Amino acid sequence: MSAPDAAAAPAGERLRAIRERIEQVDREIIGLIGERVHLAREVGAVKRTLGMPTLDPAREAAVVRRAGELAREAGVGDEDVRYIFWHLIGLSRRAQLEGE
Amino acid sequence: MIIITRPHVSDAELDQIREHIETLGLRTHLSRGEARTIIGCIGDEALLQEAALLSLSGVESITPVMKPYKLAWREFAAGPTVVKVGDRKATSIGGRALAVIAGPCSVEGRDMLRQTAAAVRGAGAGLLRGGAFKPRSSPYAFQGLGEAGLRMLAEVRAETGLPIVTEVMDTRQVELVAEHADVLQVGARNMQNFSLLSELGRVQRPVLLKRGLSATIQELLMAAEYIMSHGNHDVILCERGIRTFETATRNTLDVAAIPVLKAETHLPVLVDPSHAGGRASLVAPLSFAAIAAGADGLMVEIHPDPQRALSDGDQSLTLDAFAAFMRALRPFAHAAGRELAEPPAGLREAA
After folding, report:
1. Model-level pTM?
2. What's phi and psi for B57, nearest 5 deg?
3. In chain A, what residues touch B30 (CB-CB under 8 Å)?
4. Interface test with A, best of B11, B13, B14, B15 (most A CBs within 10 A)
5. What ranges make up the beta strands (E) of chain A?
6. How does B143-164 read in b/e, with b if 16+ C-beta sit within 10 Å?
């Protein structure tokens, strides 16, 4: 095996390992999204029992703000994270409204 | 409505202003510039009337948006948008440097594409165009190589490093084309295909939006707004000639649209002199006029053998003519205060 090949083999191995880990992280993220949607559905039912309005824009704004702050602390683009969270909130909002 | 913040506004102040607005059910968009940061408010602005925004820490002034387009409006961004293209974001569209996109109307085969790409690079142009899916006026005309054409474009990008611009015609193709291309082009005939625009708003790829044959400037900006409102802010506009009573040219290049667009929007504005004039001999004069009027770049059709081109041969420059065109463009670029990249060292002979 020539020298570049010898260097490429461990790098290729590492790439495969990182990709496997990324797939695992993706699965965890999707699992957590599922959990969040499930919780939102429960919150919707509880709010209805309490006679509270289902939608709460102030709470949504606070959630997005916190997500942006946490993203900055983690050194991740806060605008991108805010964008993702507005989409997550959209999912949760639809779940909360189920049963109305 | 846009909120202009004080200089050196803190992240915490920005967070507080945005939360205040979002609590009312609107969304915000942040644009950071060197001199100022702007928060754009998207949604029912009537809800903001009682919001006492001026009393919030960090707010300097507020301006209502009097245009039907908001995200595309010039005042919505802190400065002109520079779209970064390619894997390493090494190519810019919208900065001081002119962006020149060149290539064949249609990808006709691997060899012709390689040959063309070498000429594009050798002349100092920054991006390679080539149609894989072609919208043709006649259903009997060459419709493009489709996915095989996309693969050829991707191969040539890997060989040359040139980012790829190619058209997407249909919502069903968006994912496939985004996999291979760096910039997704919306053709003139699709400018108001709102389901396609919405879909393109959801991908993380810059979109080159060509003005429709009979579209007003406002309609073009509203089409851009469609893409941006779905989350993709990397939109590049392209004036490509409009339909008028004149038959001596294929279309009429609307030169006035360039300064009007530059005044109305922060998005980059390119010009396609090939479709505007419809003849190779008009490409250079229309390009010079476009650069003088403030265009951020050009999209030019070139072909190794225009007479045998499967589409738009009349308006394509030969590869030699393109190299000469780029040399002739240089003094115009400098006169307009713009930069034009030199051909890469070692390739200058070829150019």
Report:
1. 0.84
2. -65, 130
3. 79
4. B15
5. none
6. bbbeeebbebbbebbeebbbbb
ipTM value of the model?
0.76
**Rounded to 5 degrees, what are φ and ψ at B62?**
-130, 145
> Of B259, B295, B209, B234, which Cα lies nearest the Cα of B77?
B234
By percentage, how much of chain B surpasses pLDDT 90?
76
Q: How many CB atoms lie within 10 A of CB B43?
A: 16
Helical spans, DSSP H, in chain B: 11-23, 110-122, 147-160, 174-180, 194-200, 217-229, 257-264, 273-277, 280-292, 319-335
Least CB–CB distance from B22: residue in A60, A69, A83: A60
Which residue matches tokens 């997005």? A64
Cα–Cα distance for residue pair A68/A85, rounded to 1 Å:
9
Tell which residue, B130, B238, B154, has the closest CA to residue B188: B238
Q: Rounded CA gap, B210 and B188, in Å?
A: 5
**Burial class of residue B52, CB neighbours in 10 A (0-12, 13-18, 19+):** exposed
- Distances, alpha carbon B174 to alpha carbons A52, B124, B170, B203, in Å: 42, 29, 7, 8
Q: Reduced to 3 states, what is the DSSP secondary structure of residue B271?
A: strand
Structure tokens of B210?
A: 């060509």
- Report the alpha-carbon distance of residue B105 to residue B130 in Å, rounded: 6
Write down the pLDDT at residue B273: 97
**What is the pLDDT, as a whole number, of residue B347?**
62
State the CB neighbour count (10 A cutoff) for residue A3.
Answer: 7
Exposure b/e, B207-226, CB count within 10 A at least 16 = b: bbbbbbeebebeebbbbbbb
B 209-238 residues with CB < 8 A to A: 231
Position of tokens 């002979």?
Answer: B349
Per-residue pLDDT tens for B305-348?
Answer: 998 888 777 899 999 999 999 999 999 999 999 999 888 776 65
